Amino acid sequence: MNELQQRLTEDLSIARSLAEEGRNAPLVGGIFYVVWGLAIFACLIFNWAVVSGALAAAPWSIPAAWFAGMGAAHVYSRVAGARLRTLPGAEAIGNAVSGAVWRSVGLFLGLFAVTLFAALFQAPTSIFGGAAADGRQFGAAFSIFLPVSFGAYGVALAATAEAAKSPLLKRFSLLSFIVMAAALALIGRPAQFIVGAAGILLVSVLPGAIMMRRAVAPRNG
Question: pTM of the predicted model, to two decimals?
Answer without folding.
Answer: 0.80
